[in-house]
Fold this protein.
Amino acid sequence: MAQPPVLLKDMKLLDVKLGQLPSWLAMRDFTPGGILGAIRRGYNRYYTKYIDVRKGGLGGISMVLAGYVVISYIWSYSHLKHERRRKYH
Amino acid sequence: MLSRLVLRAAPAALRSLQRPVTVGVLHATRPLHTSKQHLAPLPPLPEKGGEVRYGLIPEEYFQFLYPKTGVTGPYVLGTGLILYFLSKEIYVVNHETIAAICILSVIIYGIKKFGPEVAAFADKLNEEKIAKAQAVKTESIEGLEAAIEQEKKEQWRVEGRSYLFDAKRNNIAMLLETNYRERLLTVYNEVKKRLDYQVALQNLKRQKEQEHMIQWVEKSVVQSITPQQQKESISKCILDLKMLSKSAQATA
C-alpha cells in the first residue's frame, strides 16, 4: 500500500468512491477533443480485447449487435408503450 | 493545417529574439518523443479474446458477483431483471417478440451446427497468412546469414593477404638480386678488359723496346767489326779449322 496519492481526475471509474462521483465527473474532459479521445480509447479497449485476437469468438460481434438491439428498443419505447397489455402495473 | 500556419509563423516571430534564444526555442515548438517507448518487436497477438458466456455476457460480470453471491448469483440477478421487465412491461410482448424468438432460435441452431467448421476455415486462412509472412522472414534471415558467411570468408581471405605480399616481395627481391649480380659481372668484365688492355699495352711496349735494342746492338756490333778485324778473324778461323782437321785426322 505504498502508493503515492493518485489525483482524483486520474483515477479510473471503478476506483472512485461513491461520494466522490460528482466531483470526478466534473473533472472529466468534456471538450470535443476529449470526448473524441474517450470514444477512441473505449473503442480501442473493446477492439484489442475481443476482436484483435488469433481465435476470435462469437462474443466479439454478438455483444455489439445485442447492444444495438437494446439501444434501438430504448429509442422506440415511446411507440411501443401503446402496445402494452395492461394499463396499470 | 492551422498548426502548420502557426509553425510557419513561429520562426519569423522568433527571429526578432536574439540568436541563441531563437535556436533553443525553435526546437521546442514541436515536442518530440513525449510518449513512452513502444515495444519492439511487437508482442504477439493474444490467443483468445476476453471470455464471453452465452455469447452475450462477458465473464467479468460473473467474476464481479462471485465473491458476494457465489455461482448462482448472476443467474438469479438475470432472472430477476427479466421478470421485472416483463411484469412492469418495460419489455412489451407483441408480435415482434415471436419474430425475435424464431430468428434467434434459427441463428443459434446455425451457430451450433456450423460454428466449428467456420472457425476452422478462418483459422486456416489466418495460418496461411502467417506462414507466408514467416516464410518471407526466414528467407530474409537465411539470406542475411549467407551474406554473413560470405563476409567471414572474405575476412579469412584478407588474412592470407600477407602471404601473398610476402611471396611478391620475395620475387622482387630475387629480381633485384639477379639484376645486381648481372651488373656486377658486367662491371667486372669491363674492368678486366681495361686492365688487360693496359697489360697488353705494356707488354707490347717492352717487346718493341727489346727488339729495337737488339737490332741496335747488332747493328752497332756489325758496324764495329772493321775490315781488318774481319780478315784476322777469318784467318784465325782457317787456322783453327786446319788444327781441328789435323787432330781429327790424327784420331781417325
